[in-house]
Automatic annotation (TrEMBL):
Belongs to the FPP/GGPP synthase family. This is Polyprenyl synthetase family protein. Its cofactor is Mg(2+). PROSITE patterns: POLYPRENYL_SYNTHASE_2 (PS00444). Keywords: Magnesium, Metal-binding, Transferase. It is an enzyme of class 2 (transferase).
Amino acid sequence: MLDGGRRYDRVGDVVNTAGGRTGLGLPDSELESEVTAALVRVEDRIVESVDSADPFVAEAARHLLDAGGKRFRPLLVILTGYFGKPDPDRIADAGAVMELTHLATLYHDDVMDEAKLRRSAPSANARWGNSLAILVGDYLFAQAAELAANLGTEAVKLQAQTFARLVHGQIAETIGPRDADPIGHHLRVLAEKTGSLIATSSRLGAMVSGVEEPLLRALSEYGETIGIAFQLSDDLLDIASESTQSGKTPGTDLREGVPTLPVLYALADDDSSPDAQRLREILALGPLTDDALHAEALGLLRDSAALKRARQTVHGYADRARDALTALPDVPARTALAGLCDVVADRSS
């Protein structure tokens, strides 16, 4: 099935924006073939779910779907199903639930952020306005919930709990750290806004395949931790990459005043060197819309101890995710999940 106009030729294509890597450490061609076929089934299920008798609703609901994406969450659903006895139809439903929920949050996020672009295409809110973008996001949540109902009450409950965490994370991000440590606050927001959905993806695929609770807990821990690492690595790419490797123009977060981890580390740094002081001075200004200041801050940040510390943090989360896998049976899917840890760590280096 097509994703943004292309077919999954390799499972690695699901993370083809992740540092240029084209493979996920899949241990054999048979597993890669099976996972690729499962991704096709998930994609078909998503397309069926977003369809509507109303042409406008169908077009708007497919807007971000057609723009592409890594399908990272369905991939985790599929791989974790191998720790049990996966049923192709239930795995397809579970993968679609996760991707539809993710897509719905993107519609809402773009309204919150007043974003103009998403995946190099006009955002839904830029094209149709905030109200319709919110409603389309709600429609996708509803379609995800209907699919979750096919999987049983535990799946519905899990999706609802995950949605609550996503909303808590968005509220916390909107309100800001208040009296909390800005770095700790930022990491908690990432855990709720990004980590929670990836943790649920890792849990749901195994859950619908009959995996017992102790292993489900290990997979949830893996998913949340690798999810935080994945988002942090995206933030680092926004600073360190010379290209659009992260899916946006390098330095976009700086220009928009988004407080990513390297920026927070730089602001908290007590280094008295001229470069560190100058970097703190510029970053304290907030959104860097002035081209000269933006270029200066980006250059200083790329050479800073803060960026090195942020890279170490990403590697720390990737290592924690890999450690969570030790509780799982040594099957090819575990090797693939460990390979994702390497992909995430390497893309931020």
